[in-house]
Amino acid sequence: MGGTDMGEEAKMSGKWTLAGLAVGLSLILGGAAAAPAAPGPKRLEGVPRFAHIFVILAENKSYDEIIGGPNAPNITRLARAYGDASRFYGEVHPSEANYVALLGGDTFGIHDDDPWYCKPGASDPACVSLAYEHPYPDHTVHARGLSDQLNAAHLSWKGYYEDLPAPGSLAYIASTPGLDDGTRATALYAAKHSGFTNFASVQSDPKRADHLVGFDAFEADLKADRLPAFALIVPNQCNEMHGLPSAQAPVDCQSKNIAGLIRRGDAEIGRIVAQIQATRAWRSSANLAIVVTFDEGLPSERTGCCGVTPDQPSNYGGGHIPTVVITNHGPRGLTDPTPYNHYSLLRTIEDAFGISEHLGHAAETDKGVVPMVKLFGG
């Protein structure tokens, strides 16, 4: 048709073809076809991309003690309203190695609560397990951890620790005047519940004081809407359900007062969750998750899953523990019976931040370590 263009040709033929519509629209828009919408961030393993993930870690309670229990109404309410990982397990007893497992994908042979600076040949009396553990592990981890991954991805991270004596402190234990007797028995803060301090790269980080901070910094960051991409939030030993054996401790912090410890910790966790849910980030279109989990179950529980090795003293399974996933845009009223543990949670965090590297046992899909896709809204 000579000088007649394709849009006119399609129109003159008595019907619009798809090609004619496209070309006609292009002419209407000044000769340039409309650009397609930019694709969103690529999902890894079906896990949505998240702007913020907060992990609140509590202590030493089994699933049945918390979920549905009379002393934990806040955690039970959150589990029923959002996401309940009903078959979640620790890696070992006691506490310290589970924190390390979450942040490094392995316990690295640790199965005691000795300070992060303890290693074979140490003479410090705080390294109490030297006397009976053979071989004795180096409690400083020289492998890569989650903090290294986040740094490489240019993502911010913090450990918020209640009663940390100073920003960046590597203190083994600390407490408050009037309670502190210099021993573990009165320690409100304990580095065994830090996780990050076990990693050599964190110990030597020149910005350590920006990363390891107290609850005063947490309050300030919430108020200023200055939230890190990843945060590990650990209340003190009275508020995380661990408790203290000292008679000087408050009644509901006494180690033998299990009901009181749970009520106190549940109230604290409920308060922290509510604070995060009051932020602008929670109300935004970006994805935010709050994970409430525990380090281990009852000492008598040696159950586990997903990359644990029952014949090894540092990775045999730390019991059935509560884990609740609370998202601003994810599922509501979901119970997920898939077996998970801290390795699974680490893998999920890596995926959620677009990190394709999976550390240690977090990479072992052949052993059942899978991301928590449903609970994170995949």
Question: In words, what does this structure look like?
Answer:
- With 378 residues, the protein is α/β, with parallel strands linked by helices.
- The protein folds into two domains: 1-36, no CATH class; 44-367, Alkaline Phosphatase, subunit A, CATH 3.40.720.10.
- It is built from twelve helices and 13 strands.
- The protein has helices at 6-12, 18-28, 63-66, 73-81, 96-104, 146-152, 200-203, 208-211, 215-223, 258-277, 280-283, 342-352; strands at residues 52-58, 83-85, 88-89, 157-161, 173-174, 189-190, 212-214, 230-234, 288-294, 320-321, 323-327, 334-336, 340-341.
- The chain has an eight-stranded mixed beta sheet with strand order 7-4-8-1-9-11-2-12, sandwiched between helices.
- Helix 5 runs parallel beside helix 12 (342-352).
- It is globular and about 55 Å long.
- It starts with 5 loop residues before the first helix and ends in a 26-residue tail after the last helix.
- Mean pLDDT is 91; it is low at 1-38.
Which terms would index this structure?
about 25% helix, Alkaline Phosphatase, subunit A, 3-stranded mixed β-sheet, globular, alpha/beta, single chain
User: Domains counted in the coordinates: how many?
Assistant: 2
Shape: globular
The first-to-last residue Cα distance is: 53 Å
**Number of DSSP-assigned strands:** 13
Main sheet makeup: 8 strands, mixed
CATH class membership of the largest domain: Alpha Beta
